[in-house]
Amino acid sequence: IALAYSRIAAVYRKSGQPDLAAKNADIAFSTALRTNNDSVKVVTALEMGDVFMQKKDLVMAFRKFSNAFDIANNLQNNYPLSAVYYHFTNLYNKLKSTENLNSREKAKEYILKSIALNTQSGNIKGLIKDYITIAKIVEITPAKNYLEREALLADSIRDPAPKFQIAQTMFDQNIIRDAS
Q: 15, exposed or middle or buried, with CB in 10 Å at 0-12, 13-18, 19+?
């Protein structure tokens, strides 16, 4: 039930309805807390953090991500912990828009932790997301390297969708001009 509410919250969040997203995320997290499933607690805490990020309440987002980290860190499973690091990266990327260089470094630090965990556990889809994310953080030359790695991983699982993300990221980072 908690995951269902979390997914509903994500739909509302992505459709620009933060109040409905917050209501459903709160129900999801409250429901998850009454279970013994720590992975569900992590997922619902991350969704609540995402809702707070959308509402520009970055302090509350940080708190929810920290809750998720505390739970995920006690699990012996890299997947939830790498997801937490990924979300922290997104939070610090949002702060990066204020030209805070420390935020940029923190974002890079967290995504590198996620990459390490996803590499260790063989989570290819997680690595694909991570490589696209880090390419948006680092300078142009390392960004191309990460996008090349991402392309190889996408090819290895025969998933063409990440190729569109690569093209968008390259365009966004003005790498296309540099490559020609």
A: exposed
Where would I find the H helices in 15-160?
18-33, 38-54, 58-74, 78-96, 101-121, 124-135, 140-156
Name the residue type at position 160: P
Are 35 and 9 in contact, with CB atoms under 8 Å apart? no
pLDDT at position 110: 95
* Both tokens assigned to 112: 């590198």
* Per-residue pLDDT tens digits for 38-50: 999 999 999 999 9
Angle at 93 between CA 90 and CA 95, to 5 degrees: 115
Question: Residue 35 contacts by C-beta under 8 Å, 6 or more apart in sequence?
Answer: 2, 41
Distance CA 92, CA 109 (A): 10
d(CA 176, CA 180): 7
